[in-house]
Amino acid sequence: MNLRRALVASALAGLVATTALPIALAAPTSASVASLQAAAAANVSCASAVVSTWSLTRVARETIVVSAQASSLASLTTAAAQGYGGVLLFGSAAPAALPATLASLRRLEPDHLSPMVMTDDEGGGIIRFSNLVGQWPWPQVMGSTMTSAQITAQGRKVGAAMVHAGFNVDLAPVADVDGRAQYPGEYNPDGYRSFGGSPAKVALDVSSFAAGLTSSHVLAVVKHFPGLGGTTPDTDYGPAETASWSKLQSTGLVPFRAAINAGANAIMMSNASVPGLTTLPAALSPAAITALRTQLGFRGLIMTDSLGAGAISALHLSTAQASVQALAAGVDQVLASNPSSPALALQTASLQTAALVAAVEHGTLTRATLVQAASQVLAATNTFTCKA
Questions:
Q1: Which residues neighbour 17 within 8 Å (Cβ) at sequence distance 6 or greater?
Q2: Does the pLDDT of residue 24 top 70, yes or no?
Q3: Where are the domains of the chain?
Q4: Which of 84, 181, 260, 267 is 20 to 30 Å apart from 294, CA to CA?
């Protein structure tokens, strides 16, 4: 999560916001996880006291992540100044000014709170800005050649490099179970992105990498619930189904259960439908969100995968329309696609904001639901102390 400390402005009198410092996930006990969950719930409750004072537009923006190319520094600062809850950076090489720009985002945020600054550093062929964070093997290579302790150490090293560069969220690790030695592509979303084909081994490796990131104060986002292993095509290209819900109980869900039991703080939903559970993409499905919350007992932040994906557009939904459906289903944070221009990134975010505001005004979405989601987002990178 976030390393910097902040005091909320006088307008937030009665609440103090500091940095959220996650605790390492290695070898947790049920008591320690329960204690962390209780503290996290209290933090969300205190964050809610802040969010409840905001305008509807401000609340809506907190649930939205603005996607941007790292070279588009102006769009990053504009997003922070307008109060969006996060930025997602794409690119292969970071400009020299990127770390300084990212360091300025909290200062620009309306209440000087820490936004989520994220990218997807998984390993192998999916590493953003290797000039800042270095290189390391594909997850499947890590899973087959490293011990769990070595994977944790690798995650810690990655996290430290990300923090030094100005990031506080990694959209990793991939918890999908897929032992195929293939590069990810249109017909296989995973392959080398997965730690392997054994649910138990993937569970151990996912929790190990997440523990390393967490120990470096980076929020690890475990993805893509309820597991994309064996799914085709990649949902970026069109609709896809996971394995059946009954089969996932002993396969795809195993790594997610392990990560949750180890204290995972954030999970990304997939855009695939789940036979036996939902015909909707999981990110838009109340049934899928309910299963994650109730059956698996997850209490942390839930985010979508890209709502500009082919599996979403196949339903004739725009990113803005899908955002409303996702929040109504129980998701806390919505992501968009890699934009073709800085102007499009901010335009998409503006349309998402307008759609969420209109949904509340027209009764499609309640303000309470939006406040709860925004509180989860805000609490992910800020720690609040409620004062009597």
A1: 6, 7, 8, 50, 113, 382, 383, 384
A2: no
A3: 10-386
A4: 84
